[in-house]
Design brief:
Layout lengths: L1 H15 L13 H10 L11 H14 L7 E3 L2 H10 L6 E6 L3 H4 L4 H6 L2 E5 L8 H4 L13 E8 L10 H13 L3 E5 L3 H8 L3 H4 L7 E5 L9 E5 L2 H4 L2 H7 L8 H12 L2 H20 L6 E2 L7 E5 L2 H8 L5 E4 L4 E5 L6 H15 L3
Parallel strand pairs: 2-3, 2-4, 4-5, 5-6
Antiparallel strand pairs: 1-7, 6-7, 8-9, 9-11, 10-11
Helix pairs in contact: 2-13, 3-13, 9-14, 14-16
């Protein structure tokens, strides 16, 4: 009987509760679903030689003010990161990144496997690289005994929810270029960064001197799909071959690119991110009213980090799914999504407050 109750509770939580576990847990924006359905007519040439892929590329070119841009679409963020990095390096290169970076922690070693390169990880207080943190690793150039530093890789937003300013990005791009290196941005949540800073995608990438970046969609209302966007001609030459080798070339590409058209042209990418950020701010404000809650990091995007008494955390997890972040200090993470509503936030806070009354 206890087993059956557990199964019932699991099913109840799966189908009846909103999740703050990850923006991967949210559904697909209705307009995006409609775009997929609209593309599901007749036949179309495969592998990206279709009208939807051409139109999606035009939309990105307009967004970034570059009519020569050659964007490539992929299934997911890991695949996008891998092929973006591959096009920048040789197997004897090294990639500098924060120790918390997605490419270092959450991609099962895929960047190292596909590139053959060493990741040089840097401990950071807030998930952000700075020129001062990077300088000690900028040595061994031209020495055959050492991996050759070639890429500075950052996440925007970071895994700790922080946001690089355009000034900070430009400083990292300048540093990379001074040493014959590239600056790569893992932009799976770059929309959240643009919304937080009230800057355009062009201002955050092209105008800062970024060399190549990914433009996320899966966490922000798409069913699937990311774009890899090289901003230097030499980085686009072999990109499509790396995409094929990494099994990221979708034969029915129109169903990825069709999503990107309204996502960009109708500003869904920015509106969705703005909602997620605003709900995270509201969530943090309401959490801070509870004396048992310790907010551990400034909320800059759509993630909230906090600490509760362990027993209260366990009780709350019986009602809501969310992840532990730093188990050594009991820190947890909540993430708001494009479809998180004020009602979702209020219900979560009411649940927490009701549980707190017994502590």
């Amino acid at each position: 009987m206890k087993y059956l109750i557990g199964i019932y509770l699991h099913c109840f939580l799966q189908f009846n509760m909103r999740s703050f576990g990850s923006d991967n847990n949210s559904g697909v924006h209705p307009r995006i679903l409609q775009a997929i359905a609209d593309a599901n007519v007749n036949h179309a040439i495969g592998y990206g030689d279709d009208v939807w892929t051409h139109d999606a590329t035009k939309a990105l070119r307009k967004l970034l003010g570059n009519n020569e841009l050659q964007a490539l679409f992929t299934f997911n963020g890991t695949g996008a990161n891998v092929i973006a990095l591959q096009t920048c390096i040789m197997p004897f290169s090294s990639i500098i990144c924060p120790s918390t970076a997605h490419i270092a922690v959450d991609e099962c070693g895929a960047p190292s496997k596909f590139t053959g390169c060493m990741l040089k990880e840097i401990e950071t207080p807030d998930g952000k690289l700075t020129p001062e943190l990077i300088h000690p690793l900028l040595h061994g150039f031209g020495v055959e005994h050492h991996p050759q530093p070639k890429v500075i890789a950052l996440s925007q937003t970071t895994e700790t929810g922080t946001v690089y300013s355009t000034k900070e990005i430009k400083a990292l791009a300048d540093l990379a270029h001074q040493h014959g290196m590239y600056l790569f941005i893992d932009g799976t949540r770059i929309a959240n960064a643009c919304a937080a800073l009230h800057v355009s995608l062009k201002e955050m990438t092209v105008d800062c001197g970024v060399d190549i970046f990914t433009f996320g969609g899966t966490k922000n209302g798409l069913m699937m799909g990311e774009a890899v966007i090289p901003l230097r001609k030499e980085l686009s030459e072999n990109l499509r071959y790396y995409r094929k080798q990494a099994t990221q070339l979708y034969s029915k590409m129109r169903f990825i690119s069709a999503q990107m058209i309204p996502y960009i042209e109708e500003n869904i990418w920015l509106d969705n991110a703005d909602n997620a950020n605003r709900m995270a701010k509201l969530l943090a404000e309401e959490l801070a009213k509870n004396n048992l809650v310790q907010i551990t990091r400034e909320v800059e995007s759509n993630a909230v980090f906090f600490i509760l008494p362990p027993l209260l955390t366990a009780k709350l997890k019986e009602q809501y799914f969310f992840y532990d972040w730093d188990e050594s200090i009991g820190e947890s993470r909540l993430v708001c999504s494009w479809d998180t509503s004020e009602k979702d936030v209020r219900e979560f806070i009411d649940c927490l407050n009701n549980l707190s009354s017994n502590f």
